[in-house]
Design goal:
Strand content: under 5%
Distance between the termini: 25 Å
Helix content: over 70%
Largest sheet: none
Number of helices: 2
Amino acid sequence: MDLVLKEILISAALALVVTVAFIYGAISSFNKDAKKKGSSEKGYDFRSVVAGSVIGFITLFWLIFYELFWQSRRWI
């Protein structure tokens, strides 16, 4: 397998794991707040979760790929 493809797959896997962890933490936090207030409102909707997931994944993917792999290459 090509080295660049391996780097992209590693970056994508790390970004996916971190994004899922952030989304899980945010949703559980919203649920705890709603339970404390006695509200049936969850504090989030499907669109915001999807938007946060996509933006978070793309941002984390680029940061991981850039910091771990792209900077180590010296393009002359």
